[in-house]
Amino acid sequence: MQSSWRKLSRKSISINRFQSLSTSSWDYDVIVNCGGVVGAAFAADLLNRTKGQCKIAIIEPQKIKDLKTTKSLPDVRVYAMAPQSIAFLKTIGAWEHINERSHPYTNMQIWESNGPGLVKFRADKMNVDELGRICEDATIQSAIYCAIKQSGHQVDFIQSEGIVDILIPEANSFNHEPVKVSLLSTSKTETAPKSRQITARLLVGADGAQSTVRRLTGGSTWGWNYGVEGVVATVSIRDTLPTESDSALANYNNTAWQNYLSTGPLALLPLWDGYASIVWSVPVPLAKKLKSLNDSEFLQELNKALRAIPQTDKWSSFEGGSENNGLHKLFGVFGRELKAVADTAMAAAQLSDSYVCPPEVKHVCSPRMSFPLSFQQAKRYVQPRVALIGDAAHSIHPQAGQGLNLGLADAACLSTTIDQALLTGQDFGLLPVLDKFAKERYVKNLLMMSAVDTINSVFKDEIGGLGCEGSSPNSPLSKGKQLVRSLGMLGVHSLGPIKHEMAKYAMGLK
Fold first, then answer.
1. Would you say residue 5 has pLDDT above 90?
2. Is residue 468 domain-resident?
3. What is the predicted pLDDT for the residue at 320?
4. Can you give the three-state secondary structure of 359-427, one letter per residue?
5. Does 471 fall in a domain?
């Protein structure tokens, strides 16, 4: 009885504090623009923390898919979910609906086909059950909304209107005016689209890299385009396509594969029932070509690229140095010594955990899609009564699979910040409160983004001379860079504790 009274008492206090901030003339406490995975996860977490007392509206033009209508074929868009993200999805009640269609990966192999570089990660060497799980975008989104529905919490969905204007109050620590959001009907059946204005204590932009909220509030970004696109598709690594009841090969492949080619990285991510997802980063002209091929032609190119083995004979090019070039002369002097170091590194790598050829892809099961890759960071995550999360705040190269993990961490952090403000009776839409969220996430996101960008830069001049002007895969500069990179990969591969600490950091366990 005492325990129940305490629980009721704490709930009552929380409600009273929340209600003390309410303004009857405002329409919502929080408006979320875009109900994708990140926006929906934020709303679900905030509803749980406030016991459903937060009045939330989600502006989402797309119809929310029901879990029961999920396609038997995996979604083209998939994510590598880190343990930290999975834990967050469990707290909001969504993971129980995702688990069945997720697929664990316990191993990861990263190698380069233009050199002998190799790095492998294994869950058993890190004393964890798995490195992460591959999950589908549509499944995660549907599961979050299912969790909200099961919780009994209410959300207003705005599905036939879009934001056309946003008015935010002046940046004053004591300005308690609401954010004003102007909506315009997007219904094609109306001859004269209707407009209206709604107000809220906080507007959250979870609307992607081309964020409407960021644009209409005068927000800007810094960063750069990589000049490449990520080609994605669903494939099968078994001879016959599985049926809905065929789960014999559910555990066929528990390894995530990534091969660094001269054109960019190619990843093969395992899914259930022998399916897999590919993410192939290539220059824009090659992306167009890959999408124009028929399935048979694309399958041939894919397997050729995926199963290209490390080039262990690359070191021989550093033993010469007859060309009248400073770098070649340098390699000529130190060529034998460098080759000896390289051979030692390769031998150590083979002893610790040798290269394994990835599975052959048998079928292409979906249309091929592509999206541009960029490094993009919003100059500011917050303004008075406005906050950006997910891709609206930052975009990252997909090669390390950290994009959604960072977005979910944003969602959890913003929700926590709001909850803590409510517990102390603060107006969570004011800048002093929102700045706490921005300061924490900006630095953490930038650290991970910079690490991934550095990885990309290390391989960049191999991509058809995209790195330095006049460089090419066969230039002395590229050869030298490739030598250092391969030695680095082999060195990390051979030093288990170091690479395991790196992996734990990427997984959110550090």
1. no
2. no
3. 45
4. CCCCEECCCCEEEEEEEEEECCCEECCEEECHHHCEECCHHHCCHHHHHHHHHHHHHHHHHHHHHCCCC
5. no
Residue 106 sits in a domain whose CATH number is 3.30.9.10
Q: What is the 3-state secondary structure (H, E, C) of 167-210?
A: ECCCCCCCCCCCEEEEEEECCCCCCCCCEEEEEEEEEEECCCCC
Are 281 and 229 in contact by the 8 Å Cβ rule? The answer is yes
Measure the CA–CA gap between 388 and 216, rounded to whole angstroms.
12
Number of domains comprising the chain: 1
Task: Note the pLDDT of residue 324.
Answer: 46
Q: How far is CA 89 from the centre of its chain?
A: 15
**Domain presence at residue 427:** no
pLDDT, tens only, 239-292? 666 554 444 444 457 899 999 888 889 999 999 888 999 999 999 999 999 999
- The DSSP 8-state label assigned to residue 244 in this structure reads T
H/E stretch holding 19: helix 2-19
Express as a percent the part of the chain with pLDDT over 70: 71
* Separation of alpha carbons 390 and 403, rounded Å: 8
Give me the domain span that covers residue 322.
73-136+224-372
The answer to whether residue 245 sits within a structural domain is yes
Work out the angle between the directed axes of helices 403-423 and 37-49 (0-180°, nearest 10). Answer: 30
pLDDT in tens, 417-430: 999 999 999 999 99
d(CA 105, CA 122): 9
Task: Give the residue from 56, 57, 54 showing the smallest Cα distance to 17.
Answer: 54
- What is the helix (H) or strand (E) element at residue 304, kind and residue range? helix 295-306
